[in-house]
Amino acid sequence: MLAFSQIAADQFLSWGWRVPFLLSIILVGIGLWIRLSILETPIFARLVAERRIERTPIVEVIKRQPKEIILSALARMAEQAPFYIFTAFVFAYGVGTLKVSRDFLLVAVLAASVLSFFTIPLSGHLSDRIGRSNMYMLGAVTTGVFGFIYFALLDSGSLALIFLAIFLAIFLAIFLAIFLALIPHDMMYGPQAAFIAESFTGRLRYSGASLGYQFASVIAGGPAPLIAAWLFAVYHSAYAIAGYILVCAILSLVAAALMKDYTGKDIAAEYA
Fold first, then answer.
1. 232-266 pLDDT, tens per residue?
2. pTM (2 decimals)?
3. How far apart (Å, rounded) are the C-alpha atoms in residues 25 and 130?
4. How far is Cα 241 from Cα 149, in angstroms, rounded to an integer?
């Protein structure tokens, strides 16, 4: 995105942004290769060997474990909605309201993504030690608080009109806000795969986890930038968006507290 922002210049919004999306087909191929190279879990391999696979797993998991599907989706509210605010809405807000260059924001988001390369597996590792539920709820609480800190740092741009030194400091504050934005997200994203998957029986695990995961994309991830834009248009304050993030965090906190935590437990016997 950053490279084609430079190449396309003023034409970025008309065609420049499309090229990186088209090139992402390479990542799809890499992801497919990785997925096909990974062995099935021992539980699922045993179910296949014993011919205990469900013929209609989606129907069965909706009938047998609807609570887990809903809780999984709600648990992702604090991870999904803020993520798209911090990585998508920030461009409209930064360029249109704060008058910050698109390339500056791209560099900041890129830096945050590099940091996530480390904080996501670290959060997953910590969840093995302190429990998936504990780690996830800690991430939800952090996200709820950080929304206000995030927009406070971004909105500090209004103070940058008098002295150049202050102006430069404001850009540092904006960069810092975006750079740190994904850490609360990563605290939930790290343990999320195991936390959600372990909630479902082995025969229905893939379908159940997928339904809960993708349902969250519909109710949280997809509409988040639109909701953020609407809130800012109505209230003319970014703190309204921070309030929305807080509501998402509370929903995730409650959902995570209601989900069973199987950290360090042998789920083969109960969930085979």
1. 999 999 999 999 999 999 999 999 999 988 887 76
2. 0.85
3. 37
4. 12
CA 237 distance to own-chain centroid? 23
Cβ-in-10-Å burial (0-12, 13-18, 19+) of 168 comes to exposed
Q: Position 175: which residue type? A: F
163, pLDDT greater than 70: no
Per the document, the length of the chain is 272
Q: Is 3 helix (H, G, I), strand (E, B) or coil?
A: helix
**Which residues lie below 8 Å from residue 83, measured CB to CB, with a gap of 6+?**
182, 185, 221, 224
61 within 8 A of 204, measured Cβ to Cβ: yes
Question: Among the residues of the chain, which ranges form H helices?
Answer: 2-8, 18-23, 25-37, 42-49, 57-64, 66-75, 77-84, 90-96, 102-130, 132-155, 164-197, 205-216, 224-235, 238-258, 268-271
- φ, ψ of residue 191 in degrees (nearest 5): -85, -5
